[in-house]
Amino acid sequence: MCNPHGGGGIATLLRVFAEQLSSVDAARVMRPSQIKDILETSTLDEHGVIHAYTAEGHDIGDVLAVAITQWMKDSPLTYALETLATSGRRHPVTLCGGGFAIAPVRMLVRNHLRQAGIPDEHVLTPEDPGTIALAEMHHLFSSPPPKDSLHEARHTTDAA
Measured between alpha carbons, how far is 3 from 138 in angstroms, rounded to an integer? Predict the structure, then answer.
């Protein structure tokens, strides 16, 4: 099954994160590049707690967690998650695209899918999910590759 869904992209998540930051500390002014850096360098600890650090070293992981949760509830990702909550029980789901390059996003979405009853083995995450475009996955899996394609040559070589 291949039905690509988009989550509204990193730009939407950045906007939601910036809104959350301004609601916590209206006096704080951060450039979009700073917010993006904080998002991209956010981490999870061994207990699944989100950590995201400002330039001053303040941990604002709790603010990021709220932003990601809000993004999941109020973006195109909402509709994708609703669809996957049922179809993911029968078919594998691959988490790919820019948002899934962010470890806390992967964790919160996986937890959401797990709560919807999707088996862990049906939720796949490539090694570098941010480099895989949804449109390209749809193209790859919705039609067979041409006979002389690099894709077929690679599979022939791997099988040999």
Answer: 7
Whole-model pTM: value is 0.70
Contact present, 107 and 48 (Cβ < 8 Å): yes
Q: DSSP of the chain, one letter per residue? A: -------SHHHHHHHHHHHHHHHH-TT----HHHHHHHHHT-EE-TT--EE-B-TT--B-HHHHHHHHHHHHHSSHHHHHHHHHHHHTTTS-EE--SGGGGSHHHHHHHHHHHHHTT--GGGEE--SSGGG--HHHHHHHHHSPPPTT-HHHHHHHHHH-
User: Is the Cβ–Cβ distance between 71 and 7 less than 8 Å?
Assistant: yes
Cα separation, 106 vs 119, whole angstroms: 15
Count of CB atoms situated within 10 Å of the CB of 153: 12
pLDDT value for 23: 84
CA 107 to CA 116: how far, in whole Å? 14
**In contact, 8 and 75? CB cutoff 8 Å:** yes
User: pLDDT by residue (tens digit) across 18-66?
Assistant: 999 988 875 567 888 899 999 999 999 999 999 999 988 999 999 999 9
